[in-house]
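ESCALATION

Customer reports they have been waiting on this structure for their group meeting. Please prioritize. Original submission:
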Amino acid sequence: MKKLAYLISNYLVAAELQKKLSPHTIKAYRIDLYQFAEYAQGHLAETETLREYVIYLNNHFSPRSAKRKLASVRAFYNELWASGIIDHNPFDKLRISIHSPQQLPRIIPEETVNTLLQCAYKKYRAGDRTTLRDIVVLELLFSTGLRVSELCSLSHDNFDLKENSVRLLINGKGRKERVIQLSTPELINLLHIYCNEYNEEIKANKYILYNRNGRPLAPQSVRRIIDKYLRVGKITSHITPHMFRHTFATSLLEAGVDIRYIQSMLGHSSIATTQIYTHVTTQKQTLLLAEKHPRSKMSFSI
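Update from on-call: job pushed to the front of the queue and completed.
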């Protein structure tokens, strides 16, 4: 291990003195590289050994740790190659796959959405004009599953109150559209009230939603709107605009809507993307089975 250990030692010194990397980074590199040296038994590994090391990392560490450890080794080999110590980089021929667990969508509890909307409506009834826009933002996020970028880009071109619909390009490609129908009477009435109230701004400009300065609403403004009503409602949860989209999809799936329709409304090009929501509804399905299945009404003695 002496030769590899020597190269690692020199690399760490250069990283500290020349590249001025932080002590935390140097410490992580030291742990990762000497761990790799032990696995490689002191030899400069070729592609096959590196491939086996990836398997080892996958089997013994979390995806996050495995990626960091492999990144440390890759940086070390890149430096060896750049310095001319090795005449080829074995990472160039390595196909790397670190297995990450599927991240399930985080949804917003129904009571939390209800509290957010109640706070916004209460503030509007107190006479705050800008709160009407806030209510529209929250309602559209919850009722349509729009991405925050799509919400902010609503304009004369894709927002049609005569047809009560929103038309959007799927993934922004070509002219293939997806149409989201607005079917809730209260939401439709709210949108008519909003468009009448902001008629001058909407006529004078392209977009539907505006900030206090009369500029089109930006994604960061939507996040601030959500945070404002989290504070008003004394809700400690962290909620993002995209969680409304997850909640929209999961709620429809739990209500029995065919996943293909949900795919269409979300604008997913592949149903595989939409199917992640089926995992979220497992607990709900268990409760429904317990409540609705005939077996729950039968009782037998042993």
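Sent to customer with the following note: DSSP finds 15 helices and three strands in the chain.
Escalation resolved.
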